[in-house]
Amino acid sequence: MEPLELNDDLSTEIDPPFNVNAEDWRRALQKVVPAVVVLRTTSCRAFDTESASSSSATGFVVDKRRGIILTNRHVVKPGPVTAEAMFVNREEIPVYPVYRDPVHDFGFFRYDSSAIQFLSYEEIPLAPEAASVGLEIRVVGNDSGEKISILAGTLARLDRDAPQYRKDGYNDFNTFYMQAASGTKGGSSGSPVIDSQGRAVALNAGSKNFSSSAFFFPLERAVRALNYLQKGRDSCQDKWEAVTIPRGTIQATFVHKGFDETRRLGLQSETEQLVRQASPLTETGMLVVDSVVPGGPAYKHLEPGDVLVRMNGEVITQFLKMETLLDDSVGQNIKLEFERGGTSLTVQLVVEDLHSITPNYFLEVSGAVIHPLSYQQARNFRFHCGLVYVSEPGYMFYRAGVPRHAIIKRLADEDISNLEDFVNVLSKLSRGARVPLVYINYKDRHRKKSVLVTIDRHEWFASPRIYTRDDSSGIWIRKPALPPDSQLISTGIIQITQGIASMDTSSSEHVQEESNNGPNESRVGEEDASADGIVIVEVEDSTSSGDTVARDDHDKSADSGNASVAERVIEPTLVLLMVYVPSSCLVDGVRGQHLVGTGVIIFHSEDMGLVAVDRNTVAISASDIMLSFAAFPIEIPGELVFLHPVHNYAIISYDPSALGPAATSVVRAAQLFPEPALQRGQSVYLVGLSRSLQATSRKSVVTNPCGALKISSTDSPRYRATNMEVIELDTDFGSSFSGVLTDEHGRVKAIWARFSTQVKHGVNSSDSHHIVRGIPVHSISQVLNKLISGAKEPSLLINGIKRQMPLVRVLEVEFHCTLLSKARSFGLSNNWIQTLVKKDPVRRQVLRVKSCLAGSKAENLLEQGDMVLAVNKKPVTCFNDLEDACQALDIYDDMDAELEFTIFRRGREMEIRVGTDIRDGNGTTRVINWCGCYVQDPHPAVRALGFLPKEGHGVYVTRWSSGSPVHRYGLHTQQWIVEVNGKPTPDLDTFVNVTKEIEDKEFVRVRTVHLNGKPRVLTLKQDLHYWPTWELRFDPETSIWQRKTIKSLETANNTG
């Protein structure tokens, strides 16, 4: 963890260091360096002030016999952590947290000292009393990721204010810090600050950006804690037991102010004289109240600006003396004497146990981490300690718009005052239920916010669990949070029979969460952005000036005269889709978790409704979809039934019975009108919905009815439309608007869809971008007919009824168009040019092979640059000709049917038979999580790059989680796992069988092959406690994504 950054710009002039004997430093460093270790820590969950992360830092041995390492609190972490220490000779051992101070920036790891077999080292003695201004020091540690770095400096101050790091994160307080110009940077947190005798006089903690100033924590409180740990360890025979280190607080923050400032605050001259006489001559000021936490012992007794004079009759001017008194008085009364604006006051306060307001347990539900509000964050936010605090919103709360740092006040119309209340309410809810939640946020603390929370309908995440810290073992013990008979645990799904009144969807607050280690840690293996920090893609439909007509549902009669006939006809068929993708199933390269778009109802009956929408809105099958209807103010869930493997559209189903009689009477399907096709110059109406469900339309002219779509591959492979002809207009509503194109009678000619692409800036920078084009409804009509007719193909449960789903025959080849004038230059004969012009006098083009998908039947048959002249003896000039040829094979009911291609290759004409591929509309339906990485079969966007490793290509890493073993050891995305412990893993089933044999805490050797073809071998340690192996798989029999635990610590113990 790199040193923390400061927000202020203070600096201190440092005198040149005094000359010291070089031999003294050599001897000191020779003794110190072997006792300094590199700590590689993995914060497995977001908790309190810290996010899930993997980082490197420094620690040093302070007790060799008992095996105790001292480092910073922000390295030990307040939440679950796994860590290893590497000594100077590269011996690695696991270390376990035994103590992290609730306030100050120090903590301890323990280790098995007998495990170090090949290194001679001694512990580093702690000497806080040796620190003095002008002392020449060395900082020995893992600076900027180097294993050992030695930085020189001179102590310039011993009374610097504690550095302020973040407004919503960890900050130290009620202590002085030391300052020196040693220039420490990332990874040196926890380094010993030593003198020429090899003693640690301070602990490196933080630094300032853009300067060489570093800040050190004084060691007096660390020495006290170490003494408690040593006594506790000696009292146990064979193992560590949890040691209680008394820490007291009145929940007030003090700052040290000079006497001049205290006089301006109203300090009486007599009091100042008394304090000066009772203090050392070097004393320069007094302690002043800076803030008080609401609900704490000092609340309503102390106020900011109060000057502390005495505590239990003793004059107190230093933090150390005050904290010593508080720590020795836990649970007892103390007498405080202070002055407020020149008035002397006295108060009796009860000293509270600081550990009692420091959370040591949390609830994990739907990827969210929820726990009592800590003293640290209560001080930052000025809330009561113990409130229900959202440390990580996860999926369920993110979907509702609940941000990180929220305080939950009500759930399902019941008051929530503590975590036990929250769990009790949660246990009464069922899957699919939608309940109101009220929260507040420190950024807008005076206004409560109400949102709807949807309990996960699918089994995206494990059932809710409580994790409790166990300082004896150093791990957090997991247990079920809900009773076995809880409705939330059962897999039964609520059948929604009534719709939910539509809310203003724009009121949901969606926040962007990034994988943030904080500025004080060195990130490990940052190769890509496919971790838990998800880029939120939230595209809003927008309106613009021009020939727009916006309708307001509250007074349709008032504006019906202004709307076009097409708009009035099509509006009842339009639907606004809100799509959410769970973080546990971000497959196929998808990065956006929240997407919005307009769809059109293409079928509506008593038992099934179908909506067509672009794949930019519904990108993958693992999604939660909510439909809001323009015809009636109601919102109901939808389910994906068909995801076209090539074209940019999806079909969503809904249950018409959930609409209710009133909505059913006005909701209807649009009339699809694929023939005749649109022509250049023809007028159409572009109609869609805004985010407020207002219909928006304009009249436009078709400028190109058959434009060849050209979308390049993205840096991170994800779905892109290929082999499509699209419709272009003279004017539209911009790249964020989707809807339909109709004729003047409101008949749908095309859906107006968004296409995802990428715009590159320079060599290493790129941004996601969208374009909008029209997709003719011809292909949609064909798929719809198959859905309705129920061909004998794979079935899917839709609204409780099994229905046959269509299969699509595709040619897994990407083509592009070349003008015949260019083709002539490549040597194409005049006879073929005349034939193709006669076939299609408008396009005047020939199709050329751009690439074949790796693993397809066309691979090794068709080559890049081949010109396709005819298929089955019929000339072809466009993508539709190829699709028609593929569909013509369906009548033979032959899964291995082939097409006879006539191609032109390198100056000569030839005949080739090419097999076709059968694809369903389910998309990716299986994902496995192992050690925090998500693996799946390679999706088409990956195969379109033309490479699959020969060793096996069935285990593709699509994403990784922050704080996981793969994060710690650098197994990232865009590569295949081809071997585990020397055993090939050609497919997911084999991969599961191989990894099931690996035990907890066992090191694994993994061989990977990157998309660029580069092989790599790495090792990682499996952690079944925090990262069990599990699988998500879609079950067409129930239409539910089901979660299955493949191997966890519990299953490993049962089988062992």
From TrEMBL:
Gene3D superfamilies: 2.30.42.10, 2.40.10.120, Trypsin-like serine proteases. Residues 242-316 form the PDZ domain. It comes from the Eukaryota. One of its GO terms (biological process) is proteolysis. GO terms for molecular function: serine-type endopeptidase activity. Residues 504-528, 542-562 are annotated as: Disordered. Residues 549-558 have a biased composition (Basic and acidic residues). Residues 504-520 have a biased composition (Polar residues). Belongs to the peptidase S1C family. This is PDZ domain-containing protein.
